[in-house]
Amino acid sequence: MARVRELLDIGISRLRESGSETARLDAELLLAHALDVDRTAVLAHTDAPVGDGAAARFQASLDRRAAGEPVAYIRGIKEFHGLAFGVDARALIPRPETERLVELTELEIVRRLLGAPRPAGSPPVRVIDVGVGGGAVAVTLAVLLRRRGMLDEVALAATDLSDDALQLARENAVAHAVGDRIAFSTADLLPGSETAGWDVVAANLPYVRSAVMPTLPIAASFEPATALDGGPDGLAVIGRLLEQLPDALATDGVALLEIGGDQETELRALATERLPGWLCEVERDLGGLPRVAVLRREGTDATSPAA
Ligand SMILES: C[S@@+](CC[C@H](N)C(=O)[O-])C[C@H]1O[C@@H](n2cnc3c(N)ncnc32)[C@H](O)[C@@H]1O
Fold first, then answer.
1. Which of 79, 80, 236, 269 could link 94 by a cystine bridge, Cβ 3.0 to 4.6 Å?
2. Separation of 130 CA from ligand 1 center, angstroms?
3. For 275-284, b where at least 16 C-beta lie within 10 A, e where not — what string?
4. Cα(162) to centroid of ligand 1, in Å?
């Protein structure tokens, strides 16, 4: 019977040959998946024997990874903001950069709830995640707000063009016990005017330039192209959302939009053109890159006397 160390060595060489730049990590995660344990158990028990069934599952996973499939799809799980999300080809694998969007959106909601006295019976803060994908943003927000005891004061909604993605998002919401706390719907960006008046819009929409798509790592080809391709300049979908904001956002509402690390200048220009008189701040991620554009009408920012 093969031992953990031998299988890891075989896996690492196989994945290195196939071009993986994270061969060791991938092999450890995939062996842990085959054994149904976590990665630390694999690292701690390198002398342990591995049964034939687990060895065969590991081999099958190596075949998929060597063909370029992302580890997250093979494992069927991805950690995001400390939570486990089910992932598969129905939606984009959540990226660590998006945790910044979640943090800023949570802060914005908390500021609204705590910043001024809220008389009993105040309407909930209305928040929508546009392009929910597998649910990383909306579901994490719901979990974080529940931990703060604030979920009852927030009405959360989420849209996507893709019914497949919405179905995965619903599954993740149920898995995190917030399935009944998010109103999911199919929509092209924001839903119709009858739901206007959003206090907070959060969106991680596609922003990869079309010409860059073929140059992405092969793993990205397993993800839905509609989740990544942002048109010729990468900002086609975000630009359409900007056009919807004046009618859709409450007077003092705010939109937080994830952008590519090299898109700040283009995004600012687009905001000036489509939202004249609005404020546009760009927040950076942990790597120091511009990552989240924050848009609101002038005179409604937190520090403004008119707010
Ligand atoms: C970059 S993925 C983000 C998914 C998820 N929010 C996350 O952060 O992991 C973009 C998502 O936007 C959706 N999308 C693309 N165009 C859209 C549109 N016009 N209206 C609504 N959703 C759209 C895609 O289907 C995809 O699920």
1. 80
2. 7
3. beebbbebee
4. 8
